[in-house]
Amino acid sequence: MKNKKAAMEMSVGTIVTIVLLMTVLILGIFLVQKIFSSARGVIDLTDQQLRSEVNKLFSTEAKLVIYPGTRLIEIKQESVDGAGIGIKNLLEGAAGTKKFSYEVVVADASDCVESEEEVEEWFTTGREEYDIPIPVGDIAAQKVLFRIPSGSSLCIVRFRVNVDAEGTAYATDFFDVIVKPK
Hints:
Elements: H1 2-37, H2 47-57, E1 64-67, E2 72-76, E3 80-88, E4 97-108, H3 116-120, E5 123-125, E6 128-135, E7 139-147, E8 156-165, E9 168-180
Parallel strand pairs: 2-9
Antiparallel strand pairs: 1-3, 3-7, 4-6, 4-8, 5-7, 8-9
């Protein structure tokens, strides 16, 4: 009789342990998913949120940063998303506000079936902008958005961002767009 009671207590203890472990596992998975989903796409960010995120990426010497910091953007076919560009005015010997401009160009589309001209048609807004006034020491944040058409090849395209300050080359950087299936 004592053996049956001990076996029953052991079974109940095992079941309780399994239930608690499963609860912890589910909560852990939920937490990890929440952390990774917090890296939202640029399309979901307001201008103030984008400026805040770009501001976090700047080091003291950086003239240009790309958001997300990984410089890797995954966009599904038939979706709109993109990159954030942050430009910081670090011109020495300058006072007041200076005019900046940037242009995003296709640097490498060799992984895609599409030609560079076809890839350039993915831009919806922010491909280039001129006469952006930035006071010394301040930043400007801009969005570059893409719409990947249905039927586009699943590939990786490298884009280069070229920034000029009052007509002279100022900074350059890159980001990659990975085309995912819809």
